Amino acid sequence: MKKVLIFPAAFQAVKNYGGYEGCDIWLKSFSRKNIPAADYYVGHSGGVNFILSNYDFLHGGKFIFINPQIEKKNIAVLFRNWIRFFFSEGIKKEKIVPIKNRGHGIKSVWKLLKVDVWKIIQKIPKGDLIIVRGVKDDYFRDKKSAEVIKNYGIKLVEVEAGHDWNDEIARAVRALVYS
Predict the structure, then answer these.
(1) Rounded to whole angstroms, how far apart are CA atoms 133 and 46?
(2) Which domains are seen in the chain, by residue range?
(3) Burial class (CB in 10 A: 0-12, 13-18, 19+), 95
(4) Cβ(5)–Cβ(36) under 8 Å?
(5) 51, 100, 155, 168: which could form a disulfide with 43 (CB 3.0–4.6 Å)?
């Protein structure tokens, strides 16, 4: 059985990802020292930035990135996009980490926004990376970024999904890991 570790989107918990093991990176109690070796490191949105910021500490394995932010955007644009996303897709209250962790989460997001995603992605061997894009995710990951990924030669899987984790993304991840 392959070991898969999930790194959830901002303010979300691993329990929302359908039974995968993972790292609850948005909790105060989390320490990167606790990241075990895995066959696949799966990052969703802000979880991608976390993986990339810790790339040198990970123990081999392949990477699946879901809706990563390839192009850097300023905080005002990101905030506007987040508001649009929230009203379009919404986030169920039970998916969000407990309120006592939100201050920590905000600090973590702020720090992770400084990660140069594209620069670090280029360090990963192309055969070790697959990017999954929800084609309806125009709030954070746009068509221009998809073209950059394809032109660079990284495998890009596009699914009928928005930004948030759903059944289509889950099926794509399962197929990529267990095919």
Answers:
(1) 14
(2) 4-178 (3.40.50.1820)
(3) middle
(4) yes
(5) 51
